[in-house]
Design brief:
Largest sheet: 4 strands, parallel
Structural class: alpha/beta
Helix content: 25-40%
CATH class: Alpha Beta
Distance between the termini: 21 Å
Radius of gyration: 15 Å
Number of helices: 4
Number of strands: 4
Number of domains: 1
Strand order of the largest sheet: 2-1-3-4
Bound molecules: FE2/S2 (inorganic) cluster
CATH architecture: 3-Layer(aba) Sandwich
CATH topology: Rossmann fold
Length: 152
């Protein structure tokens, strides 16, 4: 039987979630193989357009990882990220995309276990939702349909 395996793009802060993913790898933890990581210097760097780009190019879900509140190396980048994230979820909902396709988590460098649990849980949610685009109306408000030649 063919089972759908979602592609997850992880937009991870260099100082925390990216290091947690590194630690998970070094510790040989096994977690869902669906994750492709993009490193950014701070979650505050993540513009909503990054998320839309990921969807247009084949992602089924986007996981944003940042430092815990109070721990951002740039003081308040993660608070900026949180505000954008909440707006983005509303926008996605408005255009017919299930907001559960975008997830924000605070994961510190030492929390490899949390990263593993979050990735596995997110992959399961996306398996239930199915491929990105299935819920989109035929003429969406945003040009967000996945490209034909989306990267794999
Ligand atoms: S440095 Fe990690 S969220 Fe800002």
């Amino acid at each position: 039987m063919d089972t759908f395996e979602p592609k997850i793009v992880g937009l991870f802060c260099n100082w925390c979630t990216y290091l947690a993913a590194d630690l998970a790898g070094i510790s040989r933890m096994k977690y869902s193989h669906n994750l492709r990581i993009v490193r950014v210097m701070c979650s505050g760097r993540i513009h909503p357009e990054f998320v839309l780009w990921a969807f247009r190019n084949g992602a089924d879900g986007v996981l944003i990882g940042g430092c815990h509140p109070g721990d951002c190396h740039y003081i308040e980048g993660n608070y900026k990220n949180l505000r954008r994230f909440l707006l983005l979820r509303k926008l996605l909902e408005q255009v017919g995309i299930d907001p559960r396709r975008v997830r924000l988590e605070w994961i510190s460098a030492s929390e490899a276990d949390k990263l593993k649990q979050v990735v596995n849980d997110f992959a399961e949610t996306l398996r239930e939702l199915g491929p990105f685009g299935t819920e989109l109306p035929e003429e969406p408000v945003l040009d967000i349909h996945p490209k034909e030649e989306a990267v794999s």
